[in-house]
Amino acid sequence: MHKYQLIGPFAQILPMTHLHLKGAISDEALLIIEDGGILIENDKIHALGKFTEMLPTAKDLGAKITTLDGKDVCLPGFVDAHTHICFGGTRANDYAMRNAGKSYLEIAKSGGGIWDTVTQTRKASQTQLINLIIQRANRHLENGITTIEVKSGYGLSVKEELKMLYAIKEANQKLPADLIATCLAAHMVPKDYSGTSSDYLKEISTELFPKLKEEELCNRIDAFIEESAYTKDDIAPYFTKAKAMGFDITVHADQFSTSGSAVAIAFDAVSADHLEASTSKEIEALAKSNVIATALPGASLGLGCAFTPARELLDAGGALAIASDWNPGSAPMGDLLTQAAILGTFQKLSNAEVLAGITFRAALALNLKDRGKMEVGYLADLVTFPIHDYKEILYQQGSLKPNRVWKKGNLIMD
Ligand code: NIG
Ligand code: FE
């Protein structure tokens, strides 16, 4: 590969630079570059500007020049900051039951729900899980998503959680996309565990946490805070231990009832995700904190529930990321762009707010400061759409697909 490459011209480049982490953003704040070019040095952004003005420098540097027809829009590669794509089986029955009027909790109590996926994921071999992750991640990659968070949480024992996290690590090595692993051993209290929920969490934190560090399996600890899973009292010693060991904290918060977001704030989590049940009180507290609020419209669509109050959060000065929550239960669709566009429609979000939610704000929800913008020195993760006006992307609500994707300067889809 050439050390330098210049790509362009593009009808529009949306560099997403100069935008703030927190608060509302108008489309006028996007500093769009027309007829632009992108100069890449190895895997990173080296310079942006007008393509024709960049040509002489690029030639001096011996850059490989990729000349396009000037009819595409280019954005930073998308980031999906919350998925559960390591799972076996399907929960199509849950979906049918739900649509027939049964509630999420009723379905869980009658043998469906998360535990059903735990059973099916435990039956899958590590190799089968690797292949399933690769299939799903490649679908995401074709949709322009170059960084994908992936949670464990369908193993629910030290051994089975490790199997999932090894599968995520190995899939990551085989894929161009970056997979960011998260340990969600605190997804629900395992039905086959003989001790109390506190005993289980203690076992995970003493036996699994050190292994996560030793084998570099993940640097993030998540928990589902809800009556049907873990209470804030259950989780306090678990998160205290995780923080002391240097893990980042993230929380499944305020999905059906409030309390999780307060825990996220108390533990200075990188993100609080879901928030469909948050009231103004929780939204204001989140907006004042450093915690990124991640809306998961795919779960609202999968469950037929309200959307996260994203507009209120941004107006209160909060940081909003948008993620797919792709999982077999509550969010089977797994189409981030469609979901983000729909959230924008229902919550009255600007194009800039939605796009920020799936680029740099999502990257920061994963504590990644090297992507999601075309800042000099940031990763050359890029996605292009075959249109001349960026507003078409969300307008077409996910039906317009990318025509090219670059990951770390490598063209991986054309
Ligand atoms: O993020 N809320 C808890 N966990 C997942 C659902 C997982 C499942 O139903 O399998 C979520 O929606
Ligand atoms: Fe989730």
UniProtKB/TrEMBL annotation:
Alphabetic keyword roster: Cytoplasm, Histidine metabolism, Hydrolase, Iron, Metal-binding, Zinc
SUPFAM superfamilies the record matches: Composite domain of metallo-dependent hydrolases (SSF51338), Metallo-dependent hydrolases (SSF51556)
EC number, as in UniProt: 3.5.2.7
Q: Where is the Amidohydrolase domain?
A: 123-386
Q: Enumerate the transmembrane spans.
A: none
Pathway terms, separated by semicolons? Amino-acid degradation
State one molecular function term (GO). Answer: imidazolonepropionase activity
Q: Which PANTHER family match?
A: IMIDAZOLONEPROPIONASE, IMIDAZOLONEPROPIONASE-RELATED
What is this protein called in UniProt?
Imidazolonepropionase
Q: What's the source species for this entry? A: Sediminicola luteus
